[in-house]
Design goal:
mainly alpha; 74% helix; MetI-like fold; globular; single chain
Length: 289
């Protein structure tokens, strides 16, 4: 009897949290799906009617949206791979230090602790075509200078470098924490058997932190796919759509124009793509473990 009362009491205590989650997540999600099948516009709310799949058909047939999807997928794959590789290398390097690990951890985390808007503005000043420090250095060396954010050949790679620079510390922190749990006895046994550095890494380090690698890759995939702040501040999706992402497209042609029905359809498509990429990451992680 007492256990039943405690069970009901526990459920009662959890109920307010569940209600808040339903209000803040489930309701907006279902509303977004509902709006995606209408022509809902904030300026013409009274004229809202059900239009079926017209928003989705228009969205998928739009060449600019197709370009935004391609840019987003390519950017996500490149960013996650680079961040995972560099984060792993940094984690292994810091772990190998005999002194100064605490100081190094603090210094490496600084880029990730900065707000995204601040990071974008700092890089925008550094890469300014007129007074940016990088162009001044190139000019002093008699090398060609660039308008890094407005040239089709440099805009996409530049934003990629900025995103990797900011988020490698997150990967480093997660993998560094995982490395602390690898049994030292396994390393000692490998050295006694004469295993080399690569063999130790591949057969001992990676298997022990495989789940951590999978979780980190999943988190970075989801976060990178939603890239908006840097693109909106630095390029606005230009030049010629080379840096346009799905979120930027939804903002420009849906939210900014107050066409919430069309924007909702884009949000649903983006959610499905995120789920698809995430499912691939989860499946590979489970298969490897």
């Amino acid at each position: 009897m007492r256990s039943m009362r405690s069970g009901w009491f526990a459920r009662l205590m959890v109920l307010p949290t569940l209600v808040v989650l339903l209000v803040l997540t489930t309701y907006p999600f279902l509303s977004t799906i509902g709006y995606s099948f209408t022509n809902y516009s904030y300026l013409k709310r009274a004229a809202t009617v059900f239009i079926g799949l017209q928003n989705y058909v228009k969205l998928l047939q739009t060449r600019y949206f197709q370009l935004a999807v391609r840019n987003t997928v390519v950017f996500t794959i490149l960013a996650v791979v680079l961040e995972m590789v560099l984060g792993m290398l940094v984690a292994l390097f810091v772990r190998s230090l005999r002194r100064g690990q605490k100081v190094m951890r603090i210094l490496l985390l600084l880029p990730y602790l900065l707000p995204t808007t601040t990071v974008a503005m700092i890089w925008k000043m550094m890469l300014s075509p007129n007074y940016g420090i990088l162009n001044q250095a190139l000019s002093a060396l008699h090398l060609p200078v660039h308008n890094w954010f407005m040239e089709t050949g440099t805009a996409f790679p530049t934003i990629l470098v900025i995103d990797v620079w900011q988020n490698v510390p997150f990967v480093f922190l997660l993998l560094y924490a995982c490395l602390q749990n690898v049994p030292k006895r396994q390393y000692e046994a490998a050295r006694i058997d004469g295993a080399g550095g690569w063999q130790v890494f591949w057969h001992i380090t990676v298997p022990n932190i495989r789940e951590g690698i999978g979780v980190c890759a999943l988190l970075r995939t989801i976060d990178t796919f939603r890239l908006f702040d840097k693109v909106n501040i630095l390029t606005g999706g230009g030049p010629a759509g080379t840096t346009s992402t799905i979120t930027q497209y939804i903002y420009t042609y849906g939210i900014k124009n107050l066409k919430f029905g069309f924007g909702s359809a884009g949000a649903v498509v983006m959610t499905l793509l995120v789920l698809a990429l995430s499912s691939v990451t989860i499946r590979n992680t489970l298969r490897a473990s």
